[in-house]
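Session log. Operator J.P. requested a structure for one protein chain; no other inputs attached. Running the standard single-chain path with token output.
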Amino acid sequence: MTKTMKRWTLDTIGVDAALNLTETAVPTPARGEVLVRVKAVSLNYRDKLVRETGMGLPIQFPFVPASDMAGVVEAVGDDVTRFSAGDRVISTFHPDWIDGKPLGDARNPPYRTLGGFHTGVLSEYVALSEDWLVTAPNSLDHGEASTLPCAGLTAWFALVERGKIKPGDSVLVQGTGGVSLFGLQIAAAQGAEVFVTSSGPEKLARAKALGAHHGIDRNAGDWVEEVYRLTNDRGVDHIFEIAGGPNLGQSLKAVAPHGRISVIGVLEGFDISGPAGPLLLKSPVIQGISVGHRRALEDFVRAIDKIGLKPVIDHRYAFGEVPAAFDHLDHGAFGKIVIEL
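Structure written below.
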């Protein structure tokens, strides 16, 4: 095996922070660690925020971005029992969150994630604790599998782990990014009636081809009024709140009494707001979703192999095209952006 590897790094944080392709030594797995040859990395909107703002994290330079990868175990350190050389694996977004409640408290909420607090995975090799990895689905290639740790698990955690979705429920997802399309596919597979809001008929047509029952063009009028019309004023049982900011107020209007709103995105701002009237009168559950734990990711992997879910990939970039992949992320994608090694 080669002794050196290439990786993408940042030397500073900012909107114009340069991504640098650098060379370093291949790490040696320590006791309890696994050396993974990275085969694919997927990008999330959060990677853009970390690059541009740092998100208040204690980032150390040179910093390797990105949290989501799929790869093959190259070697294992002493006392490793969960994996062997040749196993296909994916990363976990919250490495130390195995099940139950995450580590953290009220003053210091848990956010010790890959590609932020911990160095990221945009590298030819990574050495990680065996507890930070999950077996990849048999039914997905490396690029598809790399989309699961953050976007896929976020949707699964919101709908299945926390939302207890059941056949006959209604689900509305906002937009056609990675989390929303995973939510669409998971909800449809569970027998739910799926609504999608997006900009323009082309994206809505593609969403319907994936299993959505109703497409609402948010540029054509008040999307809440269209929800009322389509549901005979009943509203929607579960809403993916992707925009954040004042858009939470729209979701509060559209949610059914005793429904559920999963606050996932912050495209319109970190400070969310909305009217107290529907909040008090409808008594919905408003849940913040910060991805999920390893056990839920393992559940999701088993479900994928059973139901045949295929992640939606907008474009696959080569490892040398990482700056172009980030530019694509900046302009938005239909589904996921993947970098293959």
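Operator note: The mean pLDDT is 95.
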